[in-house]
Design a protein that fits this description.
- By secondary structure, the protein is an alpha+beta fold.
- The protein contains six helices and 17 strands.
- Helices cover 27% and strands 22% of the residues.
- It starts with 11 loop residues before the first helix and ends with a strand.
- Residues 1-5, 151-160 and 167-173 have low confidence and may be disordered.
Length: 339
């Protein structure tokens, strides 16, 4: 099963940072209590150790209950992640949260050796590509990213001839100036003079008892004026921009298929390797609309519109609107329509 609402998954770096913040708070409180017991009561070392251990267990249980009921903790609130049930997307519940905390605590014991590192490795090698460790599969939990999608300021991009996307800096490089080639003069056909306007119909006498009326000649209707064509831009979260003139491929090292006509190749670096080699494509349809389609990426493509997100089905295009955001792994692009 998967989450009923499509949301971005939290990166392993943010999950580890939230875990470290919670552990730091627990051990800081335990160290403070142990110091106070040592200074005020002057007991033996075993009493101080028991006081420290009791504070650690009590603080861990308190954080587990808060995480089970709300999905949050001090570390998760600081890093913008939440712990939810994998099947429903709701808080995990007290029982499952306590079991998950117990597994993490056991993994941190000296007898486990590299327990925490082993759990992190199982999350990295998750067969479902959802960064769920062994303890998450046991407790049916998943950690999601609840940070709001960043709003990218519109960058001014010059309109000119077709541009080339720099594959390393992700910047628009203007096309080289056109080379003038002498062309032999051609004869321009001269339009024939307009037909004379027929005068109003007048009756012509043929016989005393008959009258023939000539119908006026109607001019052909003028063709309708062409409708203005919309111009689409993609604004990248690192400040770059792209004026779309055809199909654009997005990814870590995007490559077109054999025979595929592509106008733009947009390479996008990824801090947590969540961007696939050829992740998604954006193209301008013949009717002027803008379409986005996932190219079978590992972590999927998400479109955010007015605060609601939708995960794309690979191979099925979706029409975009002005102001939409496209989440490609841990990177964000904003759609701007002009005209």
């Amino acid at each position: 099963m998967s989450l009923p609402v499509t949301v971005p998954l939290a990166s392993l770096e943010r999950r580890f940072l939230a875990f470290a913040i919670d552990r730091l708070l627990v051990w800081s409180a335990a160290a403070l209590v142990g110091l106070l017991v040592w200074l005020l009561l002057d007991p033996g070392p075993w009493v101080v150790a028991a006081a420290v251990g009791g504070v650690v267990v009590a603080a861990a249980l308190l954080l587990a209950l808060v995480a089970g009921l709300t999905g949050s903790s001090p570390g998760r609130a600081a890093t913008g992640v939440r712990l939810v049930h994998h099947g429903t997307g709701t808080p995990l519940g007290a029982g499952r949260s306590l079991l998950r905390t117990a597994l993490l605590g056991a993994a941190g014991l000296p007898t486990f050796g590299l327990g925490i590192a082993t759990l992190a490795w199982t999350a990295l090698e998750d067969r479902d590509r959802q960064r769920r460790g062994w303890h998450d599969h046991v407790c049916h939990s998943v950690v999601i990213d609840v940070r709001p999608a960043p709003v990218v300021a519109e960058a001014a991009v010059e309109v000119g001839p077709r541009h080339i996307v720099n594959l390393t800096a992700l910047r628009l490089v203007p096309a080289p100036p056109p080379v003038e080639v002498p062309v032999a003069p051609t004869r321009v056909p001269v339009a024939p003079p307009p037909l004379p306007v027929q005068p109003a119909a007048t009756p012509t006498r043929v016989r005393p008892e008959q009258t023939v009326v000539r119908a006026p000649v109607e001019a052909p209707p003028s063709p309708p004026a062409p409708l203005p064509v919309a111009t689409w831009r993609l604004l990248v979260d690192d400040g770059g921009g792209l004026l779309l003139t055809g199909t654009a491929l997005l990814g870590r090292r995007p490559e077109p298929r054999n025979g595929e006509q592509v106008a733009h190749l947009v390479p996008m670096s990824s801090a947590d390797m969540s961007v696939s080699k050829t992740h998604a494509q954006v193209e301008v349809a013949p009717d002027g609309s803008l379409l986005v389609m996932d190219r079978g990426s590992t972590n999927g493509t998400v479109v955010v519109r007015h605060g609601s997100s939708q995960r794309l089905v690979p191979g099925r295009p979706l029409a975009l609107a002005h102001g939409d955001s496209i989440l490609v792994g841990d990177r964000t692009l904003r759609v701007v329509r002009e005209g």
